[in-house]
Every structure is written in structure tokens, then in C-alpha cells.
Specification:
By secondary structure, the chain is α+β, with helices and mostly antiparallel strands. About 55% of the residues lie in helices and about 20% in strands. The longest helix is centred in the N-terminal third of the chain and has 74 residues.
Length: about 160
């Protein structure tokens, strides 16, 4: 190996050291930046959770306050059928103000919002698939079914049974 070759190798190694040093510095800067970004993301997520929890509790707080007024009436007034009806109406009004809606139980059976608990034979008064009676009201919360209405439905009698 000549002196020129040795000098070229030393210069190449020196250049590689400089390049590796620059890459290490760049990597360390990026690592520090990523740690900062991750800390910021975690902070934003934590704040978002705190705000979400606060909103959820605030939403329920007014509901509970109004419902507890009805409970107070039940606990302090002498029991009577009128009191029970009045408290039930008061509670439903509180719920209705928060997007609770009764399922329509007039007309025909709809499997999306009704649950059959009994059937009767169809007649002129009650054609097939019509709702004859309601055992328990159903409710929607916004667009979502909270509880199906439990209904008695008129059904067409089979020819074999006739």
C-alpha cells in the first residue's frame, strides 16, 4: 500500500466518522422531538378524557337532580295511586326532555320496535298483524331502541285449525 492509498483510506474513514457523527446527532434530535411529540399527544389525550368525563357527569347531574325530586315526593308524601301516577308522569317528563320517546304501539306490529308476548286470532276488529294490546311500553333514546314494546298481536288462523 502506498502513502497515497493510506492517506485516502484515512480520509475515507475520517469522512465516514463525520457522517456517522452527523447521523447520530440527527437521530438524537429526532428522538428528542419524538419524545416531546409523544408527551404532547399523551397530555392532549388525558385532557380529552377529563373533559369527556366532566361532560358525561354534568349531563347525568341534571337528570339525577330532577329524578331525585320525584323520589323525594315518593318518600315524603303519603302513598296513594294518585301519587304513584303523578311521580311516574313526572319522571317520564324528565326523560322525554332528554330525547326519550315512546315506541308507537298503535297500528301494525314492527319487529324492529315491538316484542310479541301473546297472540290472538285475527278478526274484523283486529286484522292480522295489528297490535291488540300493550303489556309494557317501549322506548327509544334518540334513534336507538332502549326497550321494545311488549305487545299482543292479532295473527291469521291456519286453515288446519279452522
Amino acid at each position: 500500500m502506498t502513502d497515497q492509498d493510506a492517506t485516502a483510506v484515512v480520509e475515507a474513514i475520517s469522512g465516514l466518522r463525520d457522517e456517522v457523527g452527523q447521523l447520530r446527532d440527527l437521530f438524537q434530535r429526532r428522538l428528542i422531538e419524538d419524545k416531546g411529540k409523544n408527551a404532547l399527544i399523551e397530555s392532549v389525550q388525558e385532557q380529552s378524557r377529563a373533559v369527556s368525563d366532566a361532560l358525561r357527569y354534568r349531563q347525568f347531574e341534571s337528570l339525577f337532580k330532577e329524578a331525585l325530586l320525584a323520589v323525594d315526593r315518593l318518600q315524603t308524601e303519603p302513598p296513594s295511586p294518585d301519587l304513584i301516577d303523578s311521580v311516574a308522569e313526572e319522571l317520564l317528563e324528565v326523560f322525554f326532555r332528554r330525547d326519550l320517546v315512546e315506541v308507537d304501539d298503535s297500528g301494525d306490529f314492527d319487529a324492529r320496535v315491538h316484542q310479541i308476548v301473546d297472540t290472538v286470532r285475527a278478526s274484523e276488529q283486529f286484522p292480522a298483524n295489528s297490535i291488540v294490546a300493550v303489556a309494557r311500553k317501549g322506548y327509544l333514546l334518540g334513534d336507538r331502541l332502549l326497550r321494545p314494546a311488549q305487545v299482543t298481536v292479532a295473527v291469521q288462523a291456519d286453515d288446519d285449525e279452522a
